[in-house]
Structure formats: structure tokens, C-alpha cells
Amino acid sequence: MRIGELAERAGVSVRSLRYYEEQGLLQSERSASGQRHYPEEAVDRVVFVQRLYAGGLSSRTILEVLPCVDNPSADSADAAFDRMLVERARLDDHIKDLLRTRDALDELIELNRGFRATV
Amino acid sequence: MRIGELAERAGVSVRSLRYYEEQGLLQSERSASGQRHYPEEAVDRVVFVQRLYAGGLSSRTILEVLPCVDNPSADSADAAFDRMLVERARLDDHIKDLLRTRDALDELIELNRGFRATV
DNA sequence: CTAGAACCTGACATTGACGTCAGAGGCAAG
DNA sequence: CTTGCCTCTGACGTCAATGTCAGGTTCTAG
After folding, report:
1. What does the pLDDT average to over B17-23?
2. Which residues in chain A have Cβ-Cβ distances shorter than 8 Å to B69?
3. B3-118, what's its fold?
4. Confidence label for B38 from pLDDT (cuts 50, 70 and 90)
5. String of DSSP letters for A31-85
């Protein structure tokens, strides 16, 4: 499929796909005229990359982790595997921090509900 | 206390404190020579603001919510209260999304562990 | 009194994942 | 063949919280 269809199906902009390629996160075949063509699997790939971005990983970090996706055989993915564990831990910490923030908001909401009920 | 002490005690940079003031998130008394002075409560204030930043709220949004902190009486904090509920929901969605990302990472980790064990 | 922190304002720099625009070529349908 | 949509490269714009630097004032300890 061409870039427009991939963008739509994966729910990202065409600009983003070109950016992913520039960062080495996504490959494409080029037609004679230079247009990018992608296989079906590219959709899942892009969705997964988006998911990692959502988790706060940078392009560079995603690039480091991708060997675990593309070729999870022991030798090639050693550093990638370690990196993945690190990022998993970082994400876990981040989630815990957000939960604390949510709790703080809940406290404040309850406090305000109290005031609003009595007035 | 002066700005340096507040920065250290709240765990932020002096630059950030000046920025918060610029955004209306933090007030200060000025000495005759123009130096900022803060009461004890400023520490908690700054920590709380940091917490909201961590939750993904922008300066402008934090500003909108602060009436619920400063004066949780019904009349003044109406819009602020609504805004707080909205942000609470947004944060909750974000957390759920991050949990999905963590699950995806966990799956990938398990998959790779499998490969690494057999080889 | 003096050296060295700490503070002031103002302004430009940074970072990263994009948005957006320009100028040009490619492709399917009528 | 042409109209209109898709794609290409390249480059500059964005946003937000903060870093950083310059040039100058103020406070504090000795």
C-alpha cells in the first residue's frame, strides 16, 4: 500500500510516517518513481511504534528496542533486551507517579465537593 | 525565605520559580531591593504545581484549577471545579493508555525471554 | 571594606515530534 | 489529455518548560 493508506489505517499523519523512516523505525520499498510502498505488516508496526511513543520512549530509544521485535533471537537482541527492561521500569515509575497525581486530584475534588455541598 | 532556598526545598530550579510567577502560579512579596520572598506554604504550593505538571497539565490549565486550591468556596471555583474533573478524567485515560503500553512491553519481554531461554 | 554568593531583568537557545508550505512530479478516471 | 488527488524532497515553524548567558545589583561573612 502507499503512504496515504498506511497513514489512515494506522491513524497517524503522512508526515509522521516519513519521520519514522528518517529515524530508522520504519522501512519502505520504493517504486521506480520513488514512491513508498508498504506491506500489510507495516500497519501493526506503526501502531506499535505509536504505543512506545505514548509510553514516553524517544525515537532513539525505540530504535534501540526494535531488534526485540524484528528478530528476538538471543545474539542480536542483547542490548535491546536490556534496554527494554530499563524502559519497562521507567514506565512503571512514571505510571506510579501519575497515580499519585490522580490521587492528589481526587483529594482536592473531594475537598471541594465538601465545600460545595454545604454552601 | 528567598528564591534559592525555596528552589532547593521544593526541588526545582530558580528559573522555574520565576517562570511559575510569570505564569501566575506563584506569588511573592518583594523586598525593598526587589528580591522575592516566600512564606513556608510556598514549598507545598510549588510541590503541588510540579505534581500537576507531571500529570500533563499545562501552565494555563493549572492556573484555571488553582482557585480550587486557594479558595474552595462554591462561587469562585465553579469553572475551576469543572476543569478539575475534566483533567482528572483525562489523566485517568492517559494512565490506562500507559498501562496498555506496559502490557505490550511485558508481552514482548516474555516473548524474548522465551527465545533467550531456548537458545 | 571587600570578596563571593545570591539575586535581578531580559533575552536568546534547546528539545522532539511533528505541522505546514513550496515547488515539482506521478497516477487513475473520464 | 487533463483534472484532481497523491506523493516526493527540503526546509522552516511550533510549542512549552526550562537552560543559559549577559550585565548589573544586593546581601553576607570575615
Report:
1. 98
2. 108
3. Multidrug-efflux Transporter Regulator; Chain: A; Domain 2 (1.10.1660)
4. very high
5. -TTS-EE--THHHHHHHHHHHHHHTT--HHHHHHHTHHHH---TTTTHHHHHHHH
